[in-house]
Specification:
Blueprint lengths: L32 E8 L2 E4 L1 E3 L5 E5 L3 H8 L5 E4 L1 H8 L6 E4 L43 H11 L4
Parallel strand pairs: 4-6
Antiparallel strand pairs: 1-2, 1-5, 3-4
């Protein structure tokens, strides 16, 4: 009778091969990123934002068009690579990097304020002048009184 192999005869169990993903879960951007900046004391400073849960994040865009569509045409930017941007923000405690954020409100320019006509000042009504709620001179013997007296005499206190 032919012998059938048992599970113990096959040797140690081999792990199942891992399926290979064509796309990683978080694709790393390749090449140049457009990073929004603002004027700083020594040139420009990278703008940092907050995620919906409040964590700080650096933001970058893969094209100037995407940056303009999200932040407006007046937003200054510089080209940086991902490692360079991470190196700039790591000392600030920022670990997150958001590339091409899509969950933002569309850019709308700020409304220009319309001047309102000034209201005419009410006419002055003659009457008694209210006294100030404090005396014109400080109480004698207080530090303020000594400075007040010295200033009135023109000498240093």
């Amino acid at each position: 009778m032919p012998r059938t192999p048992l599970a113990d005869d096959r040797g140690p169990a081999q792990p199942a091969p891992e399926p290979t993903d064509a796309e990683p879960a978080e694709p790393a951007p390749a090449g140049r990123l457009c990073v929004p900046v603002r004027p700083g004391a020594h040139g420009v400073t990278t703008r940092l934002y907050r995620t919906p849960v409040g964590a700080r994040t650096a933001v970058a865009f893969t094209s100037p068009e995407r940056l303009r569509a999200t932040l407006g045409g007046d937003q200054p930017w510089i080209p940086l690579s991902e490692p360079a941007l991470r190196a700039l923000t790591r000392p600030l405690g920022v670990r997150a990097l958001t590339v091409d954020p899509v969950l933002t409100a569309p850019f709308t320019p700020a409304p220009t304020p319309t001047p309102t006509p000034a209201e005419p000042a009410p006419e002055a009504v003659p009457g008694p002048v209210a006294e100030p709620p404090y005396p014109a001179r400080p109480r004698p013997g207080t530090p303020c009184a000594r400075r007040f007296d010295a200033a009135a005499r023109g000498t240093a206190a």
